[in-house]
Design brief:
By secondary structure, this protein is an alpha+beta fold. The protein has 2 domains: about 55 residues, no CATH class; about 130 residues, Immunoglobulin-like. The protein is built from 3 helices and 14 strands. Strands 3, 5, 8, 11, 12, 13 and 14 form a 7-stranded antiparallel beta sheet that branches.
Length: about 230
């Protein structure tokens, strides 16, 4: 604890201010009271023949006001950032058990329910060949789509091969070969994946969604949140 005297050393000024003393925690930073105490000392000991100019006094007071305002702004911003992190964590936790869409060529088949993917179809696409491969790289099933519409094209795979046999539970890979404006090219794919859990960090940038079969993804990696 440090004791700060409220006296200036000038008897007349002290008689106006009183001689009470106050105590405060030593934070190492000048407060508004400290500033005005220093200002009072400056006025008390200035050379009467060369008094402080009004513009100098105003400049000092303006500088302190700006510094005090910046300090308050920093404090408010930290509180705002903490609140944002808390809200982001709450929103992320609500996604557990939901299905989201991320850029990926992986399809997750649970052994009974259809699994879904999506393709960003460019303009002037005349045909697409959708191929699905198992973990060993063997072709499981393929299909051709003629003149698909530009934009997001959703596909559903029921987990069966060409013979209609249901495949084992696991991860499968989809590949899209298309003809765009007369040229062959592979298209970017995305898949719908359940959110298994959320890993919280010290900031929103550190927060991760743990997706079934795909591992951790940033919130910014989420392209879509499926309904339900």
């Amino acid at each position: 604890m440090t004791t700060i005297s409220n006296t200036s050393g000038n008897s007349y000024l002290d008689s106006l201010k009183g001689t009470d003393t106050t105590t405060k925690e030593d934070s190492g930073a000048l407060t508004q009271s400290d500033f005005f105490a220093l200002l009072t000392q400056q006025l008390a000991f200035q050379d009467p023949t060369k008094p402080v100019e009004n513009d100098q006094m105003i400049a000092q007071m303006t500088s302190f006001t700006m510094a005090d305002g910046i300090s308050s702004l920093n404090t408010n911003f930290k509180d705002f950032a903490a609140s944002m992190n808390s809200n982001q964590a709450l929103q992320a936790s609500s996604l557990v058990g939901r299905t989201v869409r991320v850029n990926s060529d992986t399809l997750i088949f649970d052994g009974k329910n259809s699994t879904y993917g999506a393709i960003d179809v460019p303009a002037k696409t005349t045909s697409m060949k959708v191929s699905i491969y198992d973990a060993s790289g063997a072709l499981v099933k393929s299909d051709t789509v003629s003149n698909p519409s530009e934009g997001k094209f959703e596909l559903a795979w029921d987990g069966t091969n060409e013979a209609g046999t249901v495949q084992d539970t696991g991860l499968y890979t989809m590949k899209i070969d298309a003809t765009v404006d007369g040229k062959a090219q592979s298209l970017v794919t995305s898949s719908y994946v359940p959110v298994a859990s959320v890993t919280l960090g010290t900031s929103t940038a550190d927060m991760k969604l743990n997706l079934l079969g795909l591992g951790a993804k940033k919130m910014s990696d989420i392209l879509e949140i499926a309904a339900g």
